[in-house]
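Write out the bound-state structure for flavin mononucleotide.
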Amino acid sequence: MTTVASSASRAAEILARPVALNGLTVPNRIAMAPMTRMFSPGGVPGEDVRSYYARRAAAGVGLIVTEGTYVGHDSAGQSDRVPRFHGEEQLAGWARVADAVHAAGGTIVPQLWHIGMVRKQGQPPFAEAPAVGPSGLRIDGTEGTGRAMTQEDLDDVIGAFAEAAAAAERAGFDGVELHGAHGYLVDQFLWAGTNRRTDAYGGDPVSRTRFAAEIAAAVRANVSADFPVIFRFSQWKQEAYDARLAETPEQLEAILAPLAAAGVDAFHASTRRYWLPEFEGSDLNLAGWTKKITGKPTITVGSVGLDGDFIGAFMGEGSPVQGLDNLLDRMERDEFDMVAVGRALLQDPEWAAKVLAGRFDELKPYDAASLKSLS
Ligand SMILES: Cc1cc2nc3c(=O)[nH]c(=O)nc-3n(C[C@H](O)[C@H](O)[C@H](O)COP(=O)(O)O)c2cc1C
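---
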């Protein structure tokens, strides 16, 4: 896993193929992974955010998945520097981002986000609202200062996601990604550790998926039939790396099947290292299993082009470059359809252009200092 060399023509052949996500044709197989950057004061993505994404589209990223952006619900977030996907100024800022990415030849979807019980303290405009979640439990099992969601809360949040998706289509985006991963609100429902409900939204995996599926169905109903809806999920949680939603392919199917039935067009299976097998007895990773189970296009992610995993990035750790042969082998076998790249693209806006042209010796190691600016 340490060689950097990979045949230039092979990388181009495999990665430069267009791929369809419902009605959208993405020009190649490279996606930018969603990465919170906190450079949007007042929740408004400005000129610097616009050029940050446009630079990467101009350098060959086929699909930008934006950083998580809060849906219009009082408890959705906690930082005033994270972009919001509601409000006139905020949506006008986002429309300019989408225009710039299109002008650069790329496609773009916003990642719609509600943080649920992860919320610790709020800044205005979130200061007053309580944290909410399926059972008022934080990832570590403590109660914190939040509360369990009422049916009215559930309906409000479902409506907020649906409204944000419609706003995305109006603003010229190419689809939406629903953030169902990493221990945030939607994932708090999926995971038994945080979902102790005894009503229709808790219990077995299918019941725990009900909230996510209702969001997906409401989003589907609020956008055009060919507008792609992507669902991102993970086994791991931000504050519990060893947590798992599914121990077996059957359990995974119990979660994914209702989502596909609700209108999800593609899945983004978030792992920290894409080369690790997900279940015993097979080499398939989580995206590979997801494609096998649902038949839907899937996106893989996790330490692509880098040796160290991204958790270290939050502790200031860098990472050396890693070769792409394992990834290309898997893509050649159609194990999954797209690859999302996080830190390598955060570090180097030219990453996709270099890979597509086989300029592997120009790939840069990741340096956590790159988090400090939007270059
Ligand atoms: C600075 C930073 C911010 C992130 N923010 C988000 C986010 O808003 N939404 C999300 O789903 N994942 C987020 N992630 C996870 C990435 O999308 C990706 O899954 C992870 O970095 C692994 O990919 P990599 O190894 O290529 O960096 C973030 C990662 C980093 C490094």
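---
Residues 33-36, 67-68, 111, 179, 181-182, 232, 270, 301-304, 306, 310, 313, 341-344, 371 surround flavin mononucleotide (CB under 6 Å).
The radius of gyration is 19 Å.
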